[in-house]
Specification:
Subcellular location (chains A, B): Cytoplasm
Cofactor (chains A, B): Ca(2+); Zn(2+)
Protein name (chains A, B): Ribonuclease J
Strand content of chain A: 15-25%
CATH superfamily of the largest domain in chain A: Ribonuclease Z/Hydroxyacylglutathione hydrolase-like
Oligomer: homodimer
Family (chains A, B): Belongs to the metallo-beta-lactamase superfamily. RNA-metabolizing metallo-beta-lactamase-like family. Bacterial RNase J subfamily.
Shape of chain A: globular
InterPro entries (chains A, B): Metallo-B-lactamas (IPR001279), RibonucZ/Hydroxyglut_hydro (IPR036866), RMMBL (IPR011108), RNase_J (IPR004613), RNase_J_2 (IPR042173), RNase_J_b_CASP (IPR055132), RNase_J_bac (IPR030854), RNase_J_C (IPR041636)
CATH architecture of the largest domain in chain A: 4-Layer Sandwich
Largest interface: A-B, 75 and 75 residues
CATH class of the largest domain in chain A: Alpha Beta
Largest sheet of chain A: 8 strands, mixed
Amino acid sequence: MSHPHPELSAPAPLEKGALRVIPLGGLGEVGRNMTVFEYDDRLLIVDCGVLFPEDHHPGVDLILPDFAAIRDRLDKVEALVLTHGHEDHIGATPYLLRERGDIPLVGSELTLALLGSKLREHRLKETVHHVVREGDRISFGPFELEFVAVNHSIPDALAVVIRTGAGLVLHTGDFKMDQLPLDGRITDLRAFARLGEEGVDLFLTDSTNAEVPGFTTSEQNIGPVLDRVFHQSKQRLIVACFASHVHRVQQVLDAAVAHGRKVAYVGRSMVRNMQIAHDLGYLTVPPGVLVDAKDLAELPPERQVLVSTGSQGEPLSALSRIAQRNHHFVHIEEGDTVILASSLIPGNENAVYRVINGLARWGANVVHKGNALVHVSGHASAGELLYCYNIVKPRNVLPVHGEIRHMRANAELAKATGVPADRVVIAEDGVVVDLVDGVAKIAGKVECGYVFVDGSSIGDISEASMKDRRILGEEGFISVILVVDSVTGKVSGGPEIHARGFAEDDSTFDAIRQPIIDAIDQAIADGVDDSYQLQQTVRRVVGRWVNKTHRRRPMIIPVVVEA
Amino acid sequence: MSHPHPELSAPAPLEKGALRVIPLGGLGEVGRNMTVFEYDDRLLIVDCGVLFPEDHHPGVDLILPDFAAIRDRLDKVEALVLTHGHEDHIGATPYLLRERGDIPLVGSELTLALLGSKLREHRLKETVHHVVREGDRISFGPFELEFVAVNHSIPDALAVVIRTGAGLVLHTGDFKMDQLPLDGRITDLRAFARLGEEGVDLFLTDSTNAEVPGFTTSEQNIGPVLDRVFHQSKQRLIVACFASHVHRVQQVLDAAVAHGRKVAYVGRSMVRNMQIAHDLGYLTVPPGVLVDAKDLAELPPERQVLVSTGSQGEPLSALSRIAQRNHHFVHIEEGDTVILASSLIPGNENAVYRVINGLARWGANVVHKGNALVHVSGHASAGELLYCYNIVKPRNVLPVHGEIRHMRANAELAKATGVPADRVVIAEDGVVVDLVDGVAKIAGKVECGYVFVDGSSIGDISEASMKDRRILGEEGFISVILVVDSVTGKVSGGPEIHARGFAEDDSTFDAIRQPIIDAIDQAIADGVDDSYQLQQTVRRVVGRWVNKTHRRRPMIIPVVVEA
């Protein structure tokens, strides 16, 4: 099994007749999926998603794939294929289109509709769309594409086949193999089998659940659980789930009808996405069940169902505000029931449990995946992946979509079905894999950093800023300001000492004022007249003092101002 | 069911003959367990633990119970009972003893031995110890105590019975009901039954796992899994677990012997605790299996087992350093096996997965509770709690040890066994419960905040500092420094603008320098000569600009220095 090595250098130019795979996101993390394929000096991109930041990237809104490796070749991009409509697959598209607006966008009807509403929000209008469906074949330059139905936690997901002179690539996108999905649209294993018989030279497979033994439970199994909770509930019901989970919402609508309740959507993305899904026929809304949130509030509690965003504990979401009794019209009461029909994304636990505890404090009954089967994953577990490998019998495997632990587990599954270990390639973001003469091999490494979106800035915030934020957030800072007379070159004011996140009381610093003045006087007496050196003197004196007296390491910011 | 209400006021003085329960920690959170019992103007404390901070309390080392409510009555404390030796039950004891050093300490042999080593670290020596064991009875003032064996994830844990004129209280401490524990010391349900027949007026029960259906798996079931992993492993084995989990380490030692391997402890607390457990006979070390870490390194990899701390992803722990190939003598290699034989405490997921991914990156095989039965909980699940309630048949119930969601789930279990709803009291930290004439009722609320330990300071860091840290950590800061001539009262220097965690480039601020000067000139022309008002002017100008141009909200720190 090939491993990424830190010592990898830039890849050599691609051999004639070979295919290059350049992962720019999603390999080594769950999110910002983006893979570039290069053949005959032309490029094809599969997915362009965002990564939601965790604790290591405080204050950041979004993390984008790094376009640097293809920035000077964007004119060579034949198309961007979107496998499905989740944010981690489509969310960075507006940022790519800002760099080249006329890249043809290829995807299923629902995927492109969800993307379209996002592009409108970003005021991007003049885009080129190609709606495709399972079975369709379409070529872009040297890339002959074919699409295969896959089942996922959003309707209308597609795997993509890429045929070039270098061979056949099958990229699953995100998928699972629910054998009784709500819409009857199963992952097309007959197509996988046919492609396998033709010969799959490189198989890119979703690793997210490769560590999970067995099989992902069917979405259908949630229905009876919802039914039981609805049956037991005597008051208002609130169901939180992802705003794109059309089938989950479908089951809530059906349960509401069965129990004589009405439903209102809460949260902008929920309202918007369900409207799109309904308009396109992916969501069946029984007549009369859906009402406006304000009209719902007029009904008695036992007839109300709210379908809400905020299942990950997002602090500004409707559900968080409800948990704090801070929502403008939903007032949670003892005996209300809240269902978190959602996953718990690692890193969000504290936020989600804060919401659950908030709801429980008011006496609400909270049902969540920890105490009832109200969520199933959207990804194939180990058992399903084994089926895939045995049906496809790929010649080379590149696990995608996951942290390194997921990709390794996926690689082990491939090997267990007989794929030779040297044909299973583990590559992280930026590690380039070439398919040459039917063999996949690591060819080098391209630049691939984190690109942070923070407020209106894109890519201006660096890892150094992140590190500063982490120090400031853990330790606070102490700033020490000295004024130096620009004529005499002597200290004429200060030290003014300010601290935040460090201690409450400015008198804390009385003890260090004189030592700072003494140190500066000494430095000046020693002939130091450079303000950088004076600042370093201050930093040293204050740093030693604070470490000795407080056993802490706040950021120390000495400022010497001339006046 | 009684609920805490925000409008609760201070409780009236305690009625003659009544018992008061004052929870100072652990009710509403998992950690810093501490409950004070008051009878006839005398106090008894059960446990005095620490809480480990999560994301809402950045940079804090520890959180203590708030002693404020009893600070002026510490002379009335008859004893501090420690139910077992975990940090969340004993960890704050040194801080309490700093306030009154001669409080008698009561606990089992192992508990007091672990506490003793902690007190020595804090240089507290002259303490009063009473070693007790199951079945013992001992009185402190009006409190007649009896101890009952309970099973937990550390040996020698005790439940405590408190008899006063107000009735009989049974406090489980942390416990579960493993029916086949490694040391054969089961939770003594015969004693629970006998106490129930006598009549338990108030039952305080561990809520931690009340949301978990069914029964906690026996510790014994881990043995065969370890055996299989040891059997499959052809190289070095590293097992990480809690440093107090004597029985988990026992099973690792036994597996090592069975597979011809030697064991070394890594991590200061692991070495220290296992020495104590061994000295007191709680850990059986087969002859010759234990070696020094340096001697272990001399053996071939297939004969090495390291038992390490760091199972929660603590960044400075041995395991984290191993995962970064940054440890001074353990160099992780492809094919090594790492077992995380530990829980995953909510909030630690990112840190733990970073360690797992780090290990996987070097090719290690990582076994953890997500993919194998290498951990069982130390707490009674719902099924066990039902047994308890049915055996004890308590007259009043106060769920303890848990977040509000856990306490509510525990309350529901009590009610399901027939405890009347109005005899199940939900109280959070500081909410005082009185047992009067055999009925438990909320009596009011005492002060009970978070007390932060940060470096060498205890309680100096306030919630305001925490809020500052959260803002600094998410957004960074911009400081703007102006010098005002103390003679003329005019601006004579600046604005100097510095930012950290905000943007890389100081030229970002060129656009705002002149507007600041203009605004200050205008303010001075308008007669403003107060430096606070000038600072507010700067704050307003910079705040508006940064929000408009960057869509962010960094902390803005205007400083006006006189020189």
